[in-house]
Amino acid sequence: MNRSYRYPLIMLSALFVVRFTPAAAATDPGDLGPARGSPIEEALVAPPNVPAPIHRDHPARVIVRLETHEVIREIADGVRYTFWTFNGSVPGPMIRVRQGDTVELHLKNDPTSHMAHNIDLHAVMGPGGGAASTVTPPGQESVFTFKAMRSGVFIYHCATAPVPMHIANGMYGLVVVEPPQGLPKVDEEYYVVQGDFYTTGSYHEPGLQPFDMQKMLLEQPTYVLFNGREGSLTGSNALTSKVGDAVRLFVGDAGPNLVSSFHVIGQIFDDVNVEGGTLVNHNVQTTVLPAGGATMVQMETLVPGTFLLVDHSITRAFMQGALGELKVAGPSRPDLYNKVSGGPILGAVAPPPEVAAAPGTVDATADGRRVFTQICAACHQGNAMGLPGAFPPLAMSDYLNSDPTRAIGIVLNGLSGKITVNSTGYESVMPPQGPQLNNDEIANVLTYVLNNFNNKGGTVSAAEVKAVRAASAPK
Ligand code: CU
pTM here? Predict the structure, then answer.
């Protein structure tokens, strides 16, 4: 067609479109039509569990009931914090709907709350993501509806001023909008949200710790955590799977400040929904979660063992709490993974069994065992026998038993150069632990080692550690 005829024709057809298309607003491809059937009450569950997958072929009206609660509970063993929560958990429960659903969201604020709260869901296309319609004073309830127009994995969070403080105190979760055809079937699904926490006390300083606004402004968190508590996904709380299973993790990063480099040590993500959207990447080692972003990762657990969930900004994992465990049970697969020779397998020797401390208190023995397991066992081994030619034993150690006070200085300041332990020479380097462990922790771990592993017994006090620390501080 000749170019000069084209424009009038296009203009003419544009005129017809405007003139004869009824209700132009209903043509968005994300809109799957009006809700059908009776309204559905969503059965919410506490993290890391998730609601069941959706097997529905039509849009529905889904009622979601959230209630904000301000609660004091442990952020780490012996450390308490005032969390602000949706439904009492950090993160709040995962909301799961189907694209095209109309969500009727009820937000109640507990009458004993001190603050107003609201909710901004990133799955919402509307002012404030719902925050504009849900500012809720204590004892009241707000209701608003939205149609879930786009599938994906989305953060929700409180957006009441000061917004970063409400997020830093734990007010967030995920809303998953499944595509109309649903998600691929897997064997296990779990839900993990990372957050950064700011306390006036240092890492592991016991007692009730207030929120620290200055640390938050500097973006220097005391804790970086999965699901709002150190240990929420480790030990008896670990995620579980079986050899050969497909595992899906819905993962979010609520911030308020940090970006996460999410990684599972010893696994490769077969599928990653990039930034929680519909683009799927494959064979990914580490995926970036923006603050206020989320993703969905899927992996096959082929080999048994314990696999660590970390933020691979790895200081956060091993020194600020961003650590979880996925325990995979089943027969070994030596064709895929096999130790051929060398020293003991890491983690093969279990430390002595755990003894639960009363809530809100620090059990010195439990704390000592924790520090030993988290730090000392990496070199000295779980049975404290050390590694021949590399790391000296702490078990039955003449070097330790002859002078426990010397050991305080070694833990605080490290040690290098040749030493002789039980008639054997060692020349390795022990890094100083003084910067990351407080006086109580050093006292607890030394007392723990002295009273286990066939050592002579005895007690090291926090006051003794304090004195050695003061004496060795730079003048
Ligand atoms: Cu709030």
Answer: 0.78
pLDDT-based confidence at 178, cuts 50/70/90? Answer: very high
Give tens-digit pLDDT for 266-294: 999 999 999 999 999 999 999 999 999 99
- How far is it, in rounded angstroms, from Cα 297 to Cα 303? 18
211 CA → ligand 1 middle, Å: 14
Separation of 364 CA from ligand 1 center, angstroms? 35
Of 72, 365, 354, residue with least CA distance to 231:
354
How far is the C-alpha of 389 from the C-alpha of 400, rounded, in Å?
A: 18
26 backbone φψ class: left, alpha, beta (φ>0; ψ -120 to 50): alpha
Place of tokens 């002078």: 403
Q: How far is the CA of 67 from the centre of ligand 1 (A)?
A: 11
Give the residue from 121, 123, 126 showing the smallest Cα distance to 158: 121
Q: What is the dihedral of CA 166, 167, 168, 170, to 10 degrees?
A: 90
Residue reference for tokens 């065992």: 369
